[in-house]
Specification:
Blueprint: H1 2-21, E1 30-35, H2 38-47, H3 54-60, E2 65-71, H4 74-86, E3 91-97, E4 110-120, E5 123-135, H5 136-152, H6 157-184
Parallel strand pairs: 2-5
Antiparallel strand pairs: 1-2, 3-4, 4-5
Length: about 180
């Protein structure tokens, strides 16, 4: 797991540099970092029917290191995305834009699977990490939805529909807050 901790440290440096360079605008509200627990990794590998070996772990599990960047406004999400993908230390392996096309559940976020260089005893190696970039409103909805659906597991179809409706309201709120911010600049 140490190599994944090093990948998070490398991404932290990149984000800190970004925040310093753009300190004149409120680009990022806050950032969360986490390493997936061994139990969670094994559960995911079993669920996806992967072999429980190091090769499948490295090749198929992309979110052992997780970084969540929370931005005040939706336009900031894309500014942060562009800054990350233009960074010479970052290799983008995959991108999914659930903001432009939310999941059926209502989930909205921009996901990047990246690789960053990490110094190891074997020399420099590239390590994968998942970066999620979302607004504060999207993060609020997603945190509540995760708590209700994945930790509780007793969500009715009616409650799921209400969560989808709330996600649509969150998107409207995000838009309105961006409009207000642009009017006051």
């Amino acid at each position: 797991m140490a190599i994944y901790l090093l990948s998070i440290e490398e991404v932290k440096k990149i984000i800190n540099d970004m925040e310093v360079m753009y300190s004149n605008i409120n680009l990022i509200d806050h950032v969360k970092y986490r390493i997936k627990s061994p139990e969670s990794i094994i559960n995911k590998m079993n669920k996806k029917h992967y072999n429980l070996n190091y090769k499948d772990l490295i090749e198929k599990i992309n979110d052992i290191a997780g970084i969540r960047i929370i931005c005040p406004f939706q336009e900031n999400v894309y500014v942060v995305r562009n800054l990350l993908i233009r960074n010479p230390k970052i290799k983008v392996l995959n991108e999914k834009d659930f903001i432009k096309k939310p999941k059926p559940s209502g989930y909205a976020c921009l996901h990047l699977i990246i690789e960053v260089p990490v110094k190891s005893k074997f020399g420099e190696v590239y390590v994968k990490a998942e970066v999620q970039i979302r607004t504060m409103a999207m993060d609020f909805w997603s945190s509540i939805e995760h708590e209700l659906k994945y930790k509780n597991k007793n969500v009715t179809k009616h409650a799921s529909k209400r969560l989808i409706k709330a996600a649509k309201q969150i998107r409207k709120l995000d838009y309105e807050m961006s409009v207000l911010a642009n009017e006051t600049r």
